[in-house]
Design brief:
By secondary structure, this protein is of the alpha+beta class. It has a single domain (about 5-60), classed as Orthogonal Bundle (Multidrug-efflux Transporter Regulator, Chain: A, Domain 2), CATH 1.10.1660. It has 3 helices and 3 strands. It has a 3-stranded antiparallel β-sheet with strand order 1-3-2. The longest helix has 14 residues, at about 50-60. It is globular, with a radius of gyration of 12 Å. It starts with a strand and ends in a 6-residue tail after the last helix.
């Protein structure tokens, strides 16, 4: 399902980075995310699988995920 929503942790695992890195990408507008209501000390986000897939395809052709 292309519009499946992924957690920060799931995206971090896909990119093989720490959760903090994914949160930084979101805050820097390098990764589009849906902001969830703030219930805890950390802001909650969900990322569309289609956004992640587009970045993965783009970085596979360029060989660099850090540019996103």
């Amino acid at each position: 399902m292309e519009d499946e929503l992924l957690t920060v942790r799931e995206v971090a695992e896909m990119f093989r980075v720490d959760d903090t890195t994914v949160r930084r990408w979101i805050k820097e507008d390098a990764l589009e995310a849906i902001i969830l209501p703030h219930l805890n000390e950390r802001q909650g986000y969900r990322i569309r699988r289609s956004v992640v897939n587009a970045i993965l395809q783009s970085s596979a052709s360029s060989g660099d995920m850090a540019s996103h």
